[in-house]
Amino acid sequence: MEAHALTIRLTNKVEFPFLVLLISGGHCLLALVRGVSDFLLLGKSLDIAPGDMLDKVARRLSLIKHPECSTMSGGKAIEHLAKQGNKLHFDFKPPMQRAKNCDFSFSGLQHVIDKTIMQKEIEEGIEKGQILSSAADIAAAVQHTIACHIAKRTHRAILFCKQRNLLSQSNAVLVVSGGVASNLYIRKALEIITDATQCTLLCPPPRLCTDNGVMIAWNGVERLRAGLGILYDTEGIRYEPKYVVPFIICMQVAL
Fold first, then answer.
1. In this protein, which residues make up the domain named Gcp-like (predicted)?
2. How many whole angstroms separate alpha carbon 33 and alpha carbon 44?
């Protein structure tokens, strides 16, 4: 998570503090980045990540059998097919609309979509694994609903940070990273809220959005410059499989 958050400083001149939204196949969180290793966690997914959900929907729609999507990842297939569909054909509701926090949730939405796909298969008289005639409409509606959910929670985080003077009132920065950050539709939804809140939206190049060695190396450079975690004796080091954000203020985000 730390490497994803700091990658933008390799490609752009970004000063601390800034807000980071990490959206990928394994993560979904909002954090205020106050320094190289200084984060305030504002919100996170309560279940699965958006990239994981997009992949599962793509598999359920059997998009690997679609002639235009056979070589694409699940998320890319959804984004590609959504361009041909009507996002309003299916009325999927964004999750947690009444929740006064910055957390995310995707598993309930996925369950609704699975039931919708099953119902459409019955209506069209096809078996599971065949391509629905409405696959593009479902893809468009799914992508739109996810984008709305992510944008709304991020909007709350921006307002919270500005009300608490945790971000600049006039030149705040929102950094979006992770594999899902390469989805242009979701990025456009985030541009709408950053424009409305006088923030600048920045995303690393697509090749640096997914997990990569460059971001890990840059994270090391940032830590070296800051004098953090420089060890000359590696004996007895304990390794953690996942980074844990040390400061969590999710419960305070109740606008």
1. 1-218
2. 15
Angle at 187 between CA 183 and CA 192, to 5 degrees: 155
Q: Please enumerate in sequence order all residues whose Cβ is within 8 A of that of 24, keeping only pairs 6 or more positions apart, or say none.
A: 4, 49, 50, 51, 178, 179, 180, 181, 210, 211
Domain ranges of the chain: 2-45+170-252, 50-148
- Measured CA to CA, the distance from residue 241 to residue 246 in angstroms comes to 15
Closest CA to 3 of 203, 208, 197, 170: 208
CATH of domain 50-148: 3.30.420.40
What pLDDT, in 10s, does the model give residues 44-60? Answer: 999 999 999 999 999 99
Report the C-alpha dihedral over residues 6, 25, 108, 154, rounded to 10 degrees: 20
| Average pLDDT over all residues of the chain | 92
3-state DSSP of 112-177: HHHHHHHHHHHHHCCCCCCCCCCHHHHHHHHHHHHHHHHHHHHHHHHHHHHHCCCCCCCCEEEEEE
Cβ atoms within 10 Å, residue 56: 17
Reading the block at residue 146, the tokens are 């996810």
- Among residues of the chain, what percentage have pLDDT more than 90? 79
Arithmetic mean of pLDDT, 171-180: 95
